[in-house]
């Protein structure tokens, strides 16, 4: 095994040897972690019983998958990650929006994974060996998990793929055993002491659809390209990759989340998940639980850190992927400590997920519309202008920004933030929407309408793709021209 040398540059065709089944390995193996399992607990903590929680998770995951899965096809054509690929729609500088969104999403989910896995590890070790449940113990476990996770992320794609293949089998077996371990205490009722978080059933159920269900697929809006950039469109059809992505997302998210719902009602997890999960576990299941908390967390957080390293590499072209990964690993570890020792984890996590969903959804919608309009044809080299510290090229638009696409994203995000309802913030549009959180639907609809209205015409395509370009590209022809290298200082 060698450390991966590629960052967000174009993957050579000779190295694009992965297959669609690798997507399923990534999406199932990396998601069978307590950091994903805990999203199955969220509906229960909102006051929902088992079956309402299940229906909200299934509904949100299916809707989110329909929107997110086509994004896997973008990097199949560009041979680079999704944030860099979004330069075709937002401009080679405007694609930094995608890098920032991806960085924030992955940062939050990495911290969440390490936090939940670390808590479960400390509790399991305390019951198994009598180790003190102290601040020093938590700090040590968090640090060990962070170092192991950073190591996997630094080595990169091939090591993470091998780890995901092992975890897909091993973690599935552990979850099946866990279902039997907690089955004697299973009930369909919400835990004692919980009530509908937003006051009534339907608004709380809809909150669960967005916060627990939709948030799962939305977390992958910038990640899917990390896998498909290593796949060749000459060997694998778009249809097959789309279908396997759908299977991977649905199975990889629902298996752990439904396990989380099942165990949450079984152990009566009202305000905390990891603590009751460990306390109520049969003694014989503590070792499997310890393995799930440790290896599962490293696999899940490793992929998130890997994606964060690519995004930071795209934002700061002077750095390398390895240095960027180490930097974001340190930042994620700091957030883990804050999440445990400072914040109200449940409220902070729920609010973070909903706010990022409202901002990330418009970006994903615009990228998908642009992909459809250019018929999947891109100029891969023109997308690399910023990484080469040059100017010009097909996607230069106006000083590197497609202003109309950026405006459409900003409008959709603003409407989404005004319509979001979280435990820490309620948008001013929520009362006018019957108390429902419709931020996901509104932000998607508004950004799509604004982009189609403002951009109009045809999309800029790669060589041999759809002819012509959007009005913004034609009007900015004087700014584009050939690519020109910028002298290094």
Automatic annotation (TrEMBL):
Transmembrane segments: 23-44, 50-76, 96-116, 136-157, 166-185, 205-225, 246-271, 283-303, 324-343, 349-374, 395-418, 438-455
Keywords assigned by UniProt, alphabetized: Membrane, Transmembrane, Transmembrane helix, Transport
Similarity comment text for this entry: Belongs to the purine-cytosine permease (2.A.39) family.
Protein name (database record): Purine-cytosine permease
Organism taxonomic ancestry: Bacteria, Bacillati, Actinomycetota, Actinomycetes, Kitasatosporales
Molecular function GO terms recorded: transmembrane transporter activity
Subcellular location: Membrane
Keyword Transport: yes
Pfam families from the UniProt entry: Transp_cyt_pur (PF02133)
């Amino acid at each position: 095994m060698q450390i991966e040398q590629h960052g967000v540059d174009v993957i050579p065709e000779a190295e694009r040897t992965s297959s669609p089944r690798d997507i399923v390995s990534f999406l199932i193996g990396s998601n069978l972690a307590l950091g994903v399992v805990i999203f199955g607990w969220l509906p229960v903590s909102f006051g929902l019983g088992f079956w309402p929680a299940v229906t909200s998770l299934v509904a949100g995951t299916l809707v989110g998958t329909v929107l997110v899965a086509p994004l896997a096809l973008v990097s199949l054509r560009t041979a680079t990650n999704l944030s860099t690929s979004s330069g075709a729609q937002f401009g080679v500088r405007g694609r930094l929006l995608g890098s920032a969104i991806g960085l924030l999403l992955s940062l939050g989910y990495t911290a969440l994974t390490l936090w939940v896995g670390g808590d479960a590890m400390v509790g399991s070790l305390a019951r198994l060996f009598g180790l003190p449940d102290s601040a020093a113990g938590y700090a040590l476990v968090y640090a060990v998990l962070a170092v192991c996770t950073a190591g996997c992320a630094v080595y990169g794609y091939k090591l993470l793929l091998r780890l995901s293949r092992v975890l897909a089998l091993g973690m599935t077996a552990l979850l099946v055993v866990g279902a039997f371990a907690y089955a004697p205490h299973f009930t369909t009722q919400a835990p004692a002491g919980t009530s509908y978080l937003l006051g009534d059933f339907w608004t709380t159920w809809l909150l669960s659809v967005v916060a627990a269900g939709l948030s799962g697929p939305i977390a992958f809006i910038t990640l899917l390209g990390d896998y498909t950039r290593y796949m060749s469109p000459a060997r694998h059809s778009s249809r097959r990759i789309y279908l396997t992505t759908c299977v991977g997302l649905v199975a990889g998210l629902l298996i752990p989340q439904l396990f989380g719902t099942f165990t949450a009602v079984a152990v009566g997890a009202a305000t905390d998940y990891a603590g009751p999960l460990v306390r109520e576990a049969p003694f014989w299941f503590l070792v499997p639980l310890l393995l799930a908390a440790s290896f599962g967390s490293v696999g899940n957080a490793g992929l998130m850190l890997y994606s964060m390293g690519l995004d930071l590499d795209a934002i700061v072209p002077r750095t390398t992927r390895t240095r960027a990964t180490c930097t974001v690993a340190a930042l994620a570890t700091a957030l883990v400590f804050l999440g445990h020792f400072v914040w109200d984890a449940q409220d902070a996590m729920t609010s973070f997920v909903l706010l990022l969903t409202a901002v990330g959804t418009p970006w994903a919608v615009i990228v998908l519309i642009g992909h459809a309009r250019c018929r999947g044809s891109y100029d891969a080299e023109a997308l690399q202008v910023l990484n080469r510290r040059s100017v010009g090229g097909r996607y230069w638009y106006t000083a590197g920004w497609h202003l109309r696409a950026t405006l459409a994203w900003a409008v959709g995000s603003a409407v989404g933030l005004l319509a979001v309802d979280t435990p820490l913030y309620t948008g001013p549009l929520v009362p006018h929407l019957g108390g429902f959180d419709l931020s996901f639907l509104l932000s998607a609809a508004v950004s799509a309408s604004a982009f189609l209205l403002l951009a109009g015409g045809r999309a800029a395509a790669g060589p041999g793709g759809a002819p012509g370009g959007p009005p913004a590209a034609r009007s900015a022809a004087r700014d584009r021209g050939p690519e020109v290298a910028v002298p290094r200082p």
